[in-house]
Every structure is written in structure tokens, then in C-alpha cells.
Design a protein that fits this description.
heterodimer, A: about 300 residues, about 30% helix, B: about 900 residues, alpha/beta, 8-stranded mixed beta sheet, 33 strands
Chain lengths: ~300, ~900
């Protein structure tokens, strides 16, 4: 089964954030909020995880949103509608438990983390929960799915780092306000590690605010996504080891040793930048070649 | 010079015990010690001279010690076998291979070593030699009373199966020049065919009655006073042979006729010590034993009074209970009904008491033969004066091989006295050819052909590349290696093989250069020979059991398997597979590792419609992600998968059963049976501080990056891998060995393998261990990490370890490591690879409602590989826990059989095609 790209949309205009719809009927059929996929773009490509941001069982598609951070995501961003991706496997990880809570739930999506929030919001809403959504981004340009979110939540709060839309500041600013305002059953945060860490520090009861059970979704370095390599493992504050892929990817954020997690996320930092640098050089060369030859090579850089 | 050696000391210390055993009188004991002292002193002198020289110079030693070259060489061999010449590089391979050798240097172990190796010939000499009567034959099996044993090692020293220096043989060739020689017959003067004319002897004789006539004459001419022969137990209903010392003609006549079971004749040799002139008739094992004590261990204690040695032709003999088994199982007769047995024209013939006879081919009864006989390479009996047997002669005649002048003279007396009819054997057409052919069939080539070695990449070069380490096993290597096989009729190698490949038959096909057939033959048992030839731990399986391995190096079975697999791929040989009637039923295989691939291949051969589901983007499971390129090239794995595709197996990659598809989906898709072979892939981590530091990773992650994702080709391939300067690998199995060697190839300056037990307990395949050592991997045994220490960035930079010692054996039979208090120390490391094992992966098993799992998450199956759900079968590591590739394949194969039976019982088949030829 080929994994074809059916839709592609850039979020913003600086080539950082992309939304894609993939033709993957088997995965769509089993997908739930919390699941992720592992993709490998081409024969020499690496395997990396992406959370399923939406799915449509009827037409057999899943939606992914990704941010260009390294060579692989850059490569993916160059793929166009109609192109195929070599390998897509999933749905991986455990779906989140959907239940009706007594009090409202706050869902926080930061940056590209807004996307995986969406199916969770949708399914929790369907279960009859009151949902408050906080979407955070660096600037207005990188905000997405506001309307889609608004349609499935009870309250939508926007914040941007530069204040170009909504509240100026981090997602923890409106979170604190809500914590002071009302009793919550749960906080769910998906986004950069540092954001999730700060959300957890806000809700762990260590300050004057009340403690709220907080779940985060981990997107650590993975190869197989089935528990085989242990590369995705993280440790809890009391020293236990969990695998993000098979035990998660959603975990009680208060037990996570975020400092260790943040360090581990940088395991291959130098290699990744080396790889990206070489790729950029290659891209430039190809671009130049194409310009000078006025001759289109459709897949030469892929 | 007189040195009291360890041997003499032990004997003197146990003087009372020895005298109580009553084998020796006081006088005899003194005489025995004196002669032993002389022999031991001579050996000590030689040893001292060699020590002084620092090397062995035969010429110089000969002059200095005033000794014949033969005696000198034989004494040196003895010292070498004792392990006393290691300082000049002379090492006994046989003795070194003995695990439980006597700690005191200068003594051999007792004979139980020979028994346990199954190489005892049953000659019985050790029973005679033992000064305290601790050795017996119980139902043809050597039994040693370990409580009585004084550990003098005399039995081992005299045994012709422990060591048998060439010098003992060369003797005849070197010193007697006017002899003929053929490979089969060995040295001889003349060969005759003869028959006795003496009526009494004709009555009892099997063939020509020559041996009895020879002894009769020897008695009459007063050439001997006693003869050591074998007679049958005279209770009329048994063929149990008994050795006897006879001194008169009446007793002599009772010894006529051939015996087919082993009498261990030399167990009564000690009784002949006090007689002056003894004649002995025996098969080649008896003669070899005598040849050995013609020098060892005391330089002729029991030997000097033996005047005549007469050889008896022997293809093999049977333990008595096996002989009875042959009669019962093959002839359906009781021993009481039998009058006589015979071997003729390649058939074993029995005549029963009411005059009937029946026969079966000898090859059918070979499997009843004792292992000790499979090692014998002498049909006629070389070390004697005359050899006698029926082969080559007509009925009621015997073939007589005259070995030397003494033999010729004795034979001449029979002729002169007109006691026999005789003619030269050449007068019978083809007789000479026949006897030579049969004799040659017993010759074992291992003495001339060393175990053939695979050509390997130089360690200094290969430690920097990912190319396969063994380069080539050539056709020439194969031609030589196959000749080493003993072709045991009851082969031990097959017992050692988890899929029970009939290895001797396979080797026989190679011998005949029928490579096509050999390839088809091996694939009947093992669908992935190219893989097994490379990754099976042969040293504990087939090669570990190989009988030849007990006395020499085992046959290189793994390399032969690898050769034929590679040959068939390279030559695109036709694999002819007979499909059963195609069965219109779908079977799903979960996991494309060794168990899954084998099960799929077998089922497709049974005619099922088989689909393999694999979670990763490519097939092979551990063969692809775990085993490195230099040990198992991925192209080989891909070729084997392509072969399966050609057989009709379908592969679906990127599908995780339990996630992408559930078991119910498979049922809805029409799969009637499911085989789960998902392996045990979850890495185990140590529960110690610092486990989650950067630079500490599982062997699975490390190897998956390197092998599956080809991170060693980064940045050409996108998957990164990081390797420090100093790498510690924790563990002692194949995965640890692979990780260490990959780390080295990725550029680590120093790789240390840290294992908590000792070298001996290490479960890694021996070849990998040797390769790793050659490449410069360092090993730190009896050491266990207790803490990893990181720097401010969270990178590991130190490891604290604790020394261990070995305690009592645990469930695995290996000694349990126990930490030594206050033995902690730190070592600098910048990468740590954890290779301490894996556990079951829960994804698939736990997704199936109603599937019974044990407390570790492994699937519980019955003996037919069937789980608690009737149509779900499982095999390999997900049932057994981490094991070997071949055992998973064995499970896959047997599970396929069980699945076939299950489906045959439950469904009716619509037949479509019959036998198909598939080109692969």
C-alpha cells in the first residue's frame, strides 16, 4: 500500500510549519486521540514519530502537522500532493482514556503541539466534558486551527510570545488565571518540553495554586516505536524508567524528570545539525543546477 | 638421578589399598614400582634436559641421554600429553579439551573422560591396569568406582583412545623394509586364503578354523603356554562372550567361531602376567591397546610375555544388549532360537535352530554399533603377527594376512604339518580388491586432513569495516572437510541439531559433489541455511556433539552449511519443492524473524496461502535489526526472503498486529490460523543510578541504528549514531559481542566488554568471542556496573563497578555471581551499551483477548505450539524467552506442522494444483 500525500498546506509563510493529509486507510481505521505514527520518507531516511492530529475513518486519511527542525522534516516539507512516503506505520502508542470528568479540563497546545491537542479535545468534548483550550505560539503567523478548535471547545484562549495575537506571554499566564478562577479535573499539555515542564510546575501544587492532575504527551527520540529500542525512555522523579512509545505517549507530567528528558532530547543535536547542514548545501546545489539548466528535476532532492 | 614422581608417590601412598585389592602380591608390587620408577626416571631426565635447553633437540637429547630415538620420542609425547611441555609450546589438544583434569601436574585423569566422550573401544585393558580394581564393565559400559579410585591415571595412560603417538605406528614401516603395503591392509608379507583340515576344529569354526589351528600348533610346539581368547558363555542360550585364558586343546576348541559382541578381552590380561609365553587373538582395538602398552605407561610391564598376537578382522562389534536388540527388532527372534550368526556379502545373517536363515543388509544394523567402533580405522588388525578373517575368502575358508617373519614361520608350520589347505589370495578373483575396499572404507581421514579453516579478513583491517569477517570456504576446503566426517551410523551431531538435520547424509551428498541435491536436502530441514550456517552456535549444537570433536577437531558442519547455501544462491540452483495440493486457506504469520520466516516457508510448502505481517519496514526481525552486517550480510537475509516470496509467501511490512490490525481483523480477512512469532524484543535495563544518562543506551537501540538503519553510513543515511572514545558493553552474550564489535568499527578507541561471570560462563558463540578478541576488544570478567556517573550536560563519563566472585550454580546451571564487598572502583567511559537481555514485547500478545500469558508476558502454548485460543499458535522467543535463531526456526517449523494438522482436521480442501516446481 503506498502512502500518498492527499493534501498539503503551509501554516504561516516561512517554511516552518506544515499540515499534511495522508492516505492511510488502515491507520485511520484504528486511530484515536493520543496515537502517533512513525514515518520513513525514503530508503536512506530515518524513522521518526509524528502524532496523529486528525483522522477520517470514512475516507481513510490521517492528518499530521509538523515543524521543520532537521533534515527529515525538511525533506518531508518538500514533498508535494501526490507524492508517496516510503513507510508509514501506526497507529502507535496508547489512546488516551476518554471519560466524563466532574470539573472542566484545560487543554494546552503549544506551537506544533496544537495539532495533537485537537483529537483529544474533540473526543473529550464528545464525552460531555467542559473544555477550556489554551493555544500558544511564538507569533500570530504560527497559530493554526483556531476555528477548528473553537468548534469543539467551550472556551478558547490564545496567547503569543510577541503579543501579535491574544494574550502576550506564555501559556502558563492564562493557566494561572484559570486555576485561581475555578476547580479543574485535569490539565493536558502538548508542546515543547520546556512548556510542558512549566505547565507541570504550575499545576503541581508547589505554589499557592491548587494541584491539578496534569498529563503531557511525549514525543521523544524513537526508532521503531514498538518498545524495541528503548531510545524513547525517560525516567520519573523517583527513578523508574518508562518507554514513551509503548507505555505512553501520554503520562502524568508530575512524575516526569523533565531535566533529564530535556538533556536526552539533545542526544543527537550535533549530528542532526551536521545532517541538516549537508542537506542545505545539497539543496542549494540542486536549486542552482535547476536554475542554470532550466530543467526540472522533480525528485532529485528528495 | 631418581625423582619420586607424582605417579609413584600416589601408588606408594596407596600401597595398602593396592595390596588389599589383591591384583598384586607384595613382590609383584615392588617389581611394578621398580619398573615404573625406571620409566619415570627416564622421562624426568628427558624433561630436565628439555628444561635446561629451553627447546627440543632430538639429536642432542639422544646423545646426552643414551636412548633410542623411538623411546625418546615416545617419552616426549607422554610428557606433552601430561601438559609438562607447554613451556616449549608443545600442547596436547586432547588433554587440554578435558574440563575436569587432574589438578596435580604430572598425572592423567581417570578413564571416565574416555567413557564420557563415548570413545571407549571396549578393549578392556584399563580394567587390567587399575591397581585397585576400581574399573569394571557393567553391561558393556565402563564403570569407575570414584570412591575407590586413587587418581593415579594409569588407566588413561595405557588407553589407546586417549593418545596414540605416530611413533608407535611408524615403528613397523621404519624398521622392517621387506614388507608390502596397501592403505587398507597396512604392512604385510603375504596374503593367503586357508582352511583347516582338523575335523574337531571344522565342527566349531565359523570360517576356515585358522585361528584355532594356529593356537593348537603353538601349544603343541610349546611356543605358548597360555592363550587369551574369547569363548561364549556356555549356558546354551546366550551369545555373551567371555574372555578366557586357556592352556589346553579342549578349552581351545570352545573358543572357535566368530563373536559379534565385544568381550573386552583385555580385562583379564593381568591374569596372564605370571605366565611365560602367551598368545592373544583380538580385534584391532585389542591390538592397538597392546601396541600402546608395548611402551606405555611403564615401558612394558604387561607386555613382554606376549609371544603371539593374532589379529581378527572386525568391521565393528556390538554391545551385547544391542546385539540382542538387533535379533529382536530386526529379525524378531529371541537369542535362544539362534544357532549361528554370520556376515557375508554385506549382509548380517542368522541361522536358527530349526534350520532356517534370514538376512538383512549390514547398513541397517550399523546404527546399533557403539560410538567407540565408529572411530576405528583398522579392519584387519595391524599390530600383530598374523591377521585372520573371512573377508575375501570363499565359504569355510579364511583370509590370512602374514604380517611378519614370526607370523610367517607359524603359518608355515601349519602348512608343513599338512593341517590346512591354502592358496594365495590373489588366486581368487577380486578378493584382494574386496578386502582392500572394505578396509579403506574404515579409514578415517581426520588424521591426515586438518579441520578446514574459513579464510577470514585480517583482524586489523576488519575492525574498521562492516564487511563479513569469514571470507570464503572454497570448494577445495569442502572436498577436504567432508572427508573428515566419520559417517557415524548413529550420529551425535543430529542429536545436537535443533531441527535434526541428517548431517551425515548431507555431508555424503557433498562428498559426491551433488551440490544441487545437498542444497535441496538441507532446505527440507532448514529453510534458511545461509543464515544458520553463519549464526548458529555450532559449538554447542552439531559440532559440540560431533564424535570426531572428542578426539580431534569436530567436522566444520556450520561452514559446510554456509557453503552450500551460498553456493545455491550464487548458482541459482533449482529448489524443487513438491507442493501438497494447494489448500485454499489463509494463514497469517505475525513477525518476520527466524520463527515467522520458517513457519511461513513450511506452510507455503504445505499449500497454504501465507501472509507475513511485519511491524518494521523490512523483513528478517532480529536477523536484520540485531545481527550486524559483518556477521550476517543483510543481502543474505533479503535473498532468503526473496526465496520465500518465490515460493508464494506474501509479505506485509509496516503492519503491527495489535495496533494496525487486531486479531479479529485478521479473522475477518479470512485467516483461519495465526502464528505469532514476535520474539522477545524489549530491552532490559539495569536498575542502577545513571541509567538514563546520555551515552547509556540499549544494545537493541545501538544495533538497530547500526544494522537496520545503517547509521554506520551516516550522513549518507539519515539515522545518527554516536560513539565515544571509550565504550563499555555490559553483558556476555552474542548481543554484547555484536555491540562491542560494532562500536569498534564505528571508531571507538577502546571497547571493554564487562561481564559479571567468568569467561567460561559467557553464553556468546565461541567464534564471535575469538573474533572479538582478535579485533582487540578488551574483556573485564567478574565485574558488574553499580552506577553510571554523568557530567553537567547529562553525558555519562564514568562508571562505577564492583568485582564479583562465583557462588553456587543457579537455575541456568551457571555459577551465580556474588558481589565482593569493598571492591568498587571507577572507570572512565563515554558510551555504555547495555546488553543484558530482552523480555517479551506486550503489543501483540496483550492485544488478544483470551490469550494466556505467563507472568513474564510470554505466550503459554501446549506441545503443539497451540495457545489458549484454538487457532492461534506461537513459537520462538515469545514462547521461550530469548534463545537462538535456530531454536526459533525449529519452533517455526514444528508449529507449521501443527497448524497443518489443525487445519486439515477442521477444514475440507479444494484441490487445485499438484506438485509444482519452483525456481528459486
Amino acid at each position: 500500500l503506498p502512502f500518498r500525500i492527499l493534501k498539503k498546506k503551509e501554516i504561516g509563510s516561512n517554511g516552518i510549519l506544515f499540515e499534511m493529509v495522508l492516505d492511510t486507510p488502515l491507520i485511520a481505521n484504528k486511530a484515536h486521540a493520543g496515537n502517533f505514527i512513525i514515518i520513513r520518507i525514503n530508503e536512506k531516511g530515518e524513522r521518526f514519530p509524528l502524532t496523529i492530529a486528525d483522522y477520517d475513518r470514512e475516507i481513510g486519511t490521517i492528518t499530521i502537522v509538523f515543524q521543520v527542525v532537521g533534515k527529515s522534516t525538511k525533506l518531508l516539507s518538500f514533498r508535494e500532493v501526490g507524492d508517496e512516503i516510503l513507510d508509514v506505520v501506526g497507529p502507535l502508542g496508547n489512546k488516551i482514556r476518554i471519560q466524563k470528568f466532574d470539573y472542566p479540563i484545560v487543554l494546552i497546545g503549544g506551537g506544533v503541539g496544537i495539532a495533537p491537542c485537537y483529537p483529544q479535545v474533540k473526543e473529550l468534548k464528545e464525552a460531555g466534558n467542559k473544555i477550556i483550550c489554551i493555544l500558544g505560539a511564538r507569533n500570530k503567523e504560527l497559530l493554526f486551527w483556531k476555528d477548528k478548535m473553537r468548534a469543539v471547545c467551550d472556551e478558547l484562549i490564545i496567547c503569543t510570545n510577541d503579543g501579535s495575537e491574544g494574550i502576550k506571554g506564555f501559556v502558563t499566564t492564562p493557566l494561572k488565571t484559570i486555576l485561581k478562577r475555578e476547580k479543574l479535573s485535569r490539565v493536558i499539555a502538548i508542546g515543547p518540553l520546556i512548556m510542558m515542564k512549566n505547565v507541570c510546575l504550575t499545576t503541581n501544587g508547589s505554589n499557592s495554586l491548587s494541584k491539578v492532575e496534569t498529563y503531557v504527551s511525549l514525543n521523544t527520540i524513537m526508532i521503531d516505536g514498538t518498545g524495541m529500542c528503548g531510545g524513547c525512555r525517560f525516567q520519573t522523579i523517583d527513578g523508574n524508567i518508562y518507554f514513551a512509545c509503548v507505555n505512553g505517549p501520554d503520562f502524568d507530567g508530575h512524575m516526569i524528570d523533565f531535566d533529564n528528558l530535556i538533556k536526552r532530547a539533545k542526544r543527537f543535536e550535533d549530528r542532526e545539525s551536521e545532517s541538516l547542514k549537508l542537506y542545505n548545501i545539497e539543496c542549494k546545489a540542486v536549486k542552482k543546477y535547476k536554475e542554470t539548466n532550466k530543467y526540472v528535476y522533480s525528485n532529485s532532492i528528495n | 638421578m631418581c625423582t619420586q614422581t607424582a605417579l609413584i608417590k600416589i601408588l606408594l601412598d596407596n600401597k595398602d589399598k593396592i595390596l588389599n585389592a589383591k591384583k598384586y602380591s607384595k613382590y609383584e608390587f615392588t617389581r611394578f614400582i621398580n619398573s615404573l620408577n625406571k620409566a619415570e626416571t627416564q622421562r624426568q631426565t628427558i624433561l630436565h634436559r628439555i628444561k635446561a635447553m629451553g627447546y627440543i633437540d632430538i639429536e642432542k637429547l639422544k646423545k646426552e641421554i643414551q636412548i633410542t630415538e623411538r623411546d625418546l620420542i615416545l617419552n616426549i609425547e607422554y610428557l606433552k600429553e601430561l601438559g609438562l611441555l607447554e613451556f616449549v609450546g608443545e600442547v596436547s589438544e586432547f588433554y587440554n579439551g578435558i574440563e575436569d583434569k587432574n589438578e596435580i601436574k604430572g598425572l592423567f585423569p581417570n578413564i571416565s573422560t574416555i567413557r564420557d566422550k563415548k570413545i571407549c573401544s571396549g578393549c578392556g585393558l584399563c580394567v587390567s591396569i587399575c591397581p585397585i580394581n576400581a574399573i569394571k564393565f557393567l553391561d558393556d559400559v565402563l564403570s569407575i568406582d570414584e570412591d575407590l579410585c586413587i587418581q593415579c591415571g594409569l588407566c588413561y595412560a595405557c588407553c589407546h583412545r586417549s593418545f596414540f603417538p605416530d611413533e608407535l605406528k611408524i615403528n613397523q614401516k621404519k624398521y622392517v623394509r621387506d614388507l608390502n603395503y596397501t592403505k587398507g591392509l597396512r604392512h604385510f608379507k603375504d596374503v593367503y586364503t586357508a582352511q583347516t583340515k582338523i575335523e574337531d576344529i571344522i565342527q566349531v569354526a565359523q570360517d576356515g578354523g585358522i585361528i584355532t589351528t594356529l593356537f593348537k600348533v603353538a601349544f603343541e610346539e610349546n611356543l605358548i603356554d597360555h592363550a587369551l581368547l574369547v569363548k561364549e558363555l556356555t549356558n546354551g542360550s546366550s551369545f555373551k562372550p567371555l574372555p578366557a585364558l586357556v592352556d589346553n586343546e579342549i578349552e581351545l576348541l570352545k573358543t572357535g567361531g566368530t563373536k559379534y559382541s565385544n568381550a573386552h578381552a583385555l580385562k583379564i590380561l593381568y591374569k596372564a602376567r605370571n605366565f611365560k609365553k602367551v598368545g592373544i587373538a583380538g580385534t584391532s582395538c585389542v591390538l592397538q591397546a597392546l601396541q600402546k602398552i608395548s611402551f606405555y605407561p611403564l615401558n612394558k610391564p604387561f607386555y613382554d610375555n606376549i609371544i603371539y598376537k593374532i589379529g581378527i578382522f572386525c568391521m565393528e562389534s556390538f554391545d551385547y544388549d544391542k546385539l540382542i536388540e538387533i535379533l529382536k527388532k530386526e529379525f524378531h527372534k529371541n537369542p535362544e532360537e539362534i544357532k549361528k550368526m554370520d556376515i557375508n556379502n554385506g549382509h548380517f545373517i542368522i541361522y536358527d535352530k530349526n534350520g532356517d536363515y534370514s538376512e538383512i543388509p549390514i547398513k541397517n544394523i550399523k546404527k546399533y554399533g557403539p560410538y567407540g567402533c565408529f572411530l576405528c580405522d583398522d579392519l584387519c588388525g595391524e599390530f600383530c603377527d598374523l591377521s585372520v578373517g573371512s573377508i575375501g575368502s570363499e565359504e569355510r575358508w579364511s583370509t590370512v594376512i602374514i604380517r611378519n617373519k614370526k607370523g610367517a614361520d607359524l603359518f608355515q608350520k601349519l602348512v608343513d604339518r599338512d593341517l590346512i589347505n591354502n592358496k594365495r589370495l590373489e588366486s581368487i578373483q577380486n578378493a584382494f580388491k574386496l578386502i582392500n575396499r572394505l578396509a579403506k572404507s574404515k579409514i578415517k581421514m581426520y588424521k591426515e586432513i586438518p579441520r578446514q579453516k574459513m579464510i577470514e579478513q585480517d583482524p586489523n583491517i576488519r575492525r574498521k569495516n562492516f564487511e563479513e569477517v569469514p571470507k570464503e570456504f572454497s570448494i577445495e576446503n569442502v572436498e577436504l572437510e567432508v572427508q573428515r566426517c566419520l559417517q557415524c551410523a548413529n550420529p551425535l551431531c543430529v542429536e545436537g541439531c535443533p531441527v535434526k538435520i541428517k548431517i551425515p547424509d548431507f555431508i555424503n551428498l557433498l562428498k559426491k559433489k551433488r551440490f544441487d541435491e545437498a542444497s535441496v536436502f538441507i532446505r527440507q530441514y532448514n529453510l534458511l541455511p545461509a543464515i544458520c550456517g553463519r549464526v548458529c552456535p555450532q559449538e554447542i549444537q552439531c559440532e559440540g556433539k560431533c564424535l570426531l570433536g572428542k578426539i580431534n577437531k569436530p567436522v566444520a558442519i556450520g561452514n559446510l552449511e554456509r557453503f552450500i547455501a551460498d553456493w545455491s544462491i550464487a548458482n541459482n540452483s533449482i529448489v524443487e519443492t513438491t507442493h501438497d495440493v494447494s489448500k485454499n486457506l489463509k494463514v497469517a504469520i505475525v513477525g518476520s524473524g527466524p520463527a515467522g520466516l520458517t513457519c511461513a516457508g513450511e506452510l507455503v510448502k504445505y499449500g497454504y496461502d501465507v501472509t507475513v505481517f511485519e511491524a518494521l519496514h523490512t523483513g528478517g526481525g532480529v536477523l536484520t535489526y540485531g545481527i550486524p552486517e559483518f556477521r550476517l550480510p543483510k543481502v543474505i537475509v533479503q535473498q532468503e526472503i526473496e526465496n520465500l516470496k518465490k515460493l508464494g509467501v506474501k509479505f506485509e511490512f509496516n503492519i503491527i498486529i495489535g495496533k494496525s490490525l487486531k486479531i479479529d481483523d485478521l479473522k475477518n480477512l479470512g485467516f483461519k490460523a495465526i502464528f505469532i512469532g514476535v520474539g522477545a524484543g524489549l530491552p532490559i535495563f539495569l536498575k542502577i543510578p545513571g541509567m538514563n544518562l546520555k551515552g547509556v543506551l540499549s544494545a537493541n537501540e545501538f544495533l538497530t541504528r547500526a544494522n537496520l538503519m545503517k547509521a554506520y553510513k551516516f550522513p549518507e543515511y539519515d539515522t545518527p549514531i554516536k560513539i565515544g572514545k571509550i565504550v563499555a558493553v555490559i553483558g556476555g552474550g552474542n548481543v554484547a559481542m555484536d555491540s562491542a564489535r560494532v562500536a569498534l568499527r564505528l571508531g571507538a578507541e577502546k571497547v571493554i566488554l564487562v561481564y559479571r561471570r567468568s569467561e567460561k560462563e559467557m553464553p556468546a558463540r565461541r567464534e564471535e568471542y575469538h573474533h572479538a578478541k582478535e579485533e582487540g576488544i578488551e574483556f573485564l570478567f567478574l565485574t558488574n556496573p553499580i552506577k553510571f556517573i554523568g557530567d553537567k550536560d547529562g553525558d555519562v563519563h564514568q562508571m562505577e563497578v564492583k568485582k564479583m566472585r562465583l557462588g553456587v550454580p543457579d537455575d541456568s546451571g551457571r555459577q551465580r555471581p556474588i558481589p565482593i564487598e569493598n571492591s568498587e572502583y571507577k572507570m572512565i567511559v563515554d558510551t555504555v551499551i547495555i546488553a543484558i537481555g530482552t523480555r517479551s514485547n506486550p503489543i501483540c500478545p496483550r492485544s488478544i483477548v483470551g490469550l494466556n500469558l505467563d507472568n513474564k508476558g510470554y505466550i503459554i502454548t501446549n506441545e503443539y505450539f497451540q495457545s489458549s485460543i484454538e487457532n492461534i499458535f506461537a513459537g520462538g522467543d515469545i514462547v521461550t524467552g530469548s534463545a537462538t535463531v535456530i531454536s526459533a526456526m525449529g519452533a517455526g517449523k514444528e508449529a507449521a506442522e501443527a497448524i497443518d494438522k489443525f487445519l486439515m482436521k477442521n477444514y475440507k480442501f479444494v484441490s487445485s494444483t499438484a506438485a509444482q516446481k519452483i525456481r528459486s
